[in-house]
Amino acid sequence: MMRLVKAGLMFGNLYEVSSPALVERYNRALEHLTGKRTELTEFHIDIVGASPEVAHELGDELYLNPHGANQMFILLSTDQKTAPLLNSQFSTSRSILRQYIVENEDQLFALTAREAVAGELMNSVFKLDEPADLLDINRIEITADTTQAHVAEAEELSGQIDRFMSDDDAWWDDILIAEMIELAKRTGNIQRNPVKLDSKVYVQGNYFTSHFGGVYVFRDANVPTIIAREKVNGLNDTDIDQVLTFDDREGIANWLRDENLSQLIVQRPSQDSALIIRQKMDFIVVSTAANHDHDLSGMSRQNMRTLERRYANQLPPEFTGLMEVWRWASLGGRVPRLGPPHPAFFYALRGSQNKDRDLVNMLLSDLSHLDFRQLFICHKSLFYEAYQTWSESKKDFVVRFLQQEYAMDKDGAREALFGAEPKMTEDAPAPTPIPPLRKPTMTRLVDDELLEIDIESGRVRQNAKPYISPWGPSPRSRGKKGRNRR
């Protein structure tokens, strides 16, 4: 993993804690939250104050996130807002805390100038024991204060000032005046420099969690849906409209299409889109060559075609499927006929321009592991997990590619791959009411007809919504009856 660290692809942009004053503030906050302290004199922290060095010292990567449900945080500086979130259990945690820091930046800047701010992102559950708990996480409340309780004391002093100004007898209350003086010594002039951090509640809408093997929760969709990497006991009993697993590729593809959450990378012949597909094909060639112990040192785009020809008979169906898309996009070949069962299908999709685009791209990267670039951009924890299984030669190639081709222009690369950033609304929408659970069904694609089968009775619904390839109906459906099936 040191290749990634040295290349700035792992633990990058962390906040450095090296001065004795900051280390002591961190220790006071850490002891306040967990009862532990660190003996380190220098370390780095992420946006929540979690440090890989401290985690190694304590032997606990989740020392600020017990049970992975309620993320605690330590802020030493508002500069932490640009840092990543390490070992995240929920995809929304970083964006929520970053928004909180931005909204309270002036207050937090004043507080962290003299003391660390400690707080917690509190869910409605403290531990996820069963899949049904996933739907109980509707709101995230952030509470924070310094270890010396400056915010609480400032609120108390504010109340005493209001009492002193409104109560005629307060002028003669020596005890009240003495308490105000003592509090003011610790809080400063709160009328000139107000110290206030209101508890903030954020909507927890659609998200990914690493719990239960990896689960994507789309609660705010028109058809609320949970997508799990694998079958999980109890998941089908959750109070949600639809539960899918990665085995049900047709179900996932149809749901993404119906919700307008995904789009084709190549929607019409285009050299720019063809280049993206070509790069995905190159990544598959690299993976194939690495699996055959090929030395990838010095490999470049110029000699990638030689490598492709050498391993032509060993290339997986992901490559041949994307080749169809590439030919159509660049050379005017026939329209591709890839359906969801084809291993290349999800490689040809990306998230559409919507508020959950990043989450959809995370899901798509989870379904297309051979595209290591998208995996690194959209799902870093999964990328780091896969990286450890690669050969040394592939590790060198991937690090060199990401450092030279991606890190040099991250914004440009993301825009080319995923389109411009979607416009965000000011307020996040409230969660959609959960409809009653439907009877469990499965779908099967037979001659371009999507048949819905009731698992309990075995009955087949003939009037199920027909499946149409995103590039158009297949040739066999272009008869008199199928000409206008769209």
Q: What's the gist of this structure?
A:
With 486 residues, the protein is an alpha+beta fold.
What is the strand and helix layout of this fold?
Blueprint: H1 2-6, E1 15-17, H2 20-34, E2 43-45, H3 52-58, E3 71-75, H4 93-103, H5 105-112, E4 117-122, E5 139-146, H6 150-166, H7 174-187, E6 200-203, E7 207-209, E8 215-218, E9 225-228, E10 242-245, H8 249-258, E11 262-264, H9 271-291, H10 304-310, H11 317-331, E12 349-351, H12 357-366, H13 372-378, H14 380-387, H15 392-406, H16 410-418, E13 441-446, E14 449-454, E15 460-461
Parallel strand pairs: 9-10
Antiparallel strand pairs: 1-2, 3-4, 4-5, 5-6, 7-8, 8-9, 11-12, 13-14, 14-15
Helix pairs in contact: 6-7, 9-11, 13-14
Question: What does this protein look like?
Answer:
The strands form 5 sheets. A 4-stranded antiparallel beta sheet has the order 3-4-5-6. The protein starts with a helix and ends in a 25-residue tail after the last strand. The protein has helices at residues 2-6, 20-34, 52-58, 93-103, 105-112, 150-166, 174-187, 249-258, 271-291, 304-310, 317-331, 357-366, 372-378, 380-387, 392-406, 410-418; strands at residues 15-17, 43-45, 71-75, 117-122, 139-146, 200-203, 207-209, 215-218, 225-228, 242-245, 262-264, 349-351, 441-446, 449-454, 460-461. Helices cover 37% and strands 13% of the residues. 33% of the residues are buried. The protein has 16 helices and 15 strands. α9 runs antiparallel to α11 and α13 crosses α14 (380-387). The chain has 486 residues and is an alpha+beta fold. It is elongated. It has 3 domains: 2-148, no CATH class; 211-418, no CATH class; 441-477, no CATH class.
